[in-house]
Design a protein that fits this description.
single chain, alpha+beta, Kinesin, Methane Monooxygenase Hydroxylase, Chain G, domain 1, three-stranded antiparallel β-sheet, 16 helices
Length: 417
């Protein structure tokens, strides 16, 4: 999991970029009988962009490092140095001092073998990782249109064809979904993307494919860790999630993370303070009053029927819903009316006119609403879903089951949608 879900950040060379609930089950003798993992909020934005001094997920660099034994695979997947891939060459850092990506890749292969991954599964997984790298290198040229907005076309079809081959989809079909969308129902009506829209479509496919791959790997690990007669009678759960976050610019992913931390803080307050006090009172035991900060008001602001999260969902359901109208409605609803809501002053945060504030248990955080709705929607266009669901690879098809239209795994914001 670390190879696919951890990355170098400015503060940590092996930072976990997803949350997880690990369940360890025991038999009647106290011996471990099985386990399971539930993932939460993989940081999808990292797949296509990294800040200065940081890296993408470890597995990309490990696969490229490989080693002599990995040369045939690297040749087949057309892999080169990290600096040759757009998704790895943005931050100025491709190597971690004191760490051998080649050795780490050997460990990943050993772990997959221990977890009973078949050689076919391993080939599928690394092929998809390579496909994401090649997708990131797909470029676009402007197609001038004198009667409507300019369109786009793939400028390096050899690269897009390579990605299509690895995903087992048609070359022309991939180019089509990258540069246009179908708005027709019974009759196909294609609307061309501009260059920026085409790049966004490329990145959306990359994020969805990698996120679904990550979920598929977790599911496969769970298959190995499970046992036929697992019971919840003897189980220890360990929750490992991101801590409270507050950056210069905070977005939807920080709101999700901090909401989760608010819930944990409330749980802590409830069980360590409030419920204990009730027990003492019921038993007639006098203890000094314990002063703790109650964060119920903040949770009400976030999750009430007309709270922030509900208002985001409501705005998505409106045909012309937009980030700025969501913000306007939010400010009209809560400015000066709720103790945990803050409308930023011009110098309180960057781009204050695009922000709202929440007074959390750990401090006030201002959130920039840019792309809030799209990150919460977290969907792929049906054209893209249809292409991936009709892939010639059973593994790729299994990542995008027909009954699931989410488009990027269970990402609810995806920590970077």
């Amino acid at each position: 999991m670390e190879a696919f879900g951890n990355a170098k950040t400015l503060r940590n060379n092996n930072s976990s970029r997803f949350g997880k609930l690990i369940s360890v089950r025991f038999d009647g003798n106290g011996c471990i009988s099985g386990g399971s993992i539930i993932e939460y909020l993989l940081e999808k934005s990292r797949i296509v962009f990294q800040a200065d001094g940081e890296r993408n997920y470890h597995i990309f660099y490990q696969l490229l490092a490989g080693g002599e034994a990995n040369l045939p695979m690297k040749t087949r997947l057309v892999l080169d140095h990290p600096e040759t891939f757009h998704y790895l060459d943005q931050s100025g850092v491709t190597h971690i001092e004191g760490l051998s990506d080649e050795k780490e890749f050997e460990d990943v292969n050993g772990a997959m073998d221990t977890l009973n991954f078949s050689s076919e599964e391993v080939d599928d997984i690394f092929g998809i990782v390579a496909a994401v790298l090649h997708l990131g290198n797909v470029g676009f040229d402007v197609v001038v249109n004198t009667t409507s907005e300019d369109g786009s076309r793939v400028s390096n079809t050899d690269v897009s064809d390579r990605a299509a081959m690895l995903l087992r989809v048609g070359n022309e079909r991939l180019r089509t979904v990258l540069t246009s969308r179908n708005i027709g129902n019974r009759t196909k009506i294609l609307v061309a993307y501009g260059v920026d829209q085409a790049a966004n479509a490329r990145d959306a496919i990359s994020k969805a494919v990698y996120a679904r791959l990550f979920s598929r790997i977790i599911s496969r690990i769970n298959e190995t860790l499970s046992t036929a007669f697992m019971s919840d009678a003897h189980v220890i759960n360990v929750l490992d999630i991101f801590g409270f976050e507050s950056f210069e610019t905070n977005s939807f992913e920080q709101l999700c993370i901090n909401y989760c931390n608010e819930k944990l803080q409330f749980h802590f307050n409830e069980h360590i303070f409030r419920l204990e006090q009730e027990v003492y009172a019921a038993e007639g035991v006098h203890v000094p009053d314990t002063d703790f900060k109650d964060n119920q008001a903040t949770l009400d602001l976030l999750e009430a029927r007309v709270g922030i999260l509900a208002m985001i969902d409501d705005e998505i359901s409106v045909p012309q819903g937009a980030d700025n109208t969501f913000l306007s409605k939010l400010k009209a609803q809560y400015t000066g009316k709720h103790e945990s809501f803050a409308a930023p002053k011009p110098r309180e945060c960057k781009d204050a006119q695009l922000c709202f504030g929440v007074v959390h248990y750990a401090g006030k955080v201002f959130y920039n609403v840019t792309d809030f709705l799209e990150k919460n929607r977290d969907s792929l266009h049906p054209d893209i879903l249809g292409m991936l669901r009709q892939s010639g690879s059973p593994f790729v098809r299994s990542m995008f089951p027909a009954e699931d239209d989410a488009g990027g795994g269970d990402d609810s914001g995806g920590r970077g949608g």
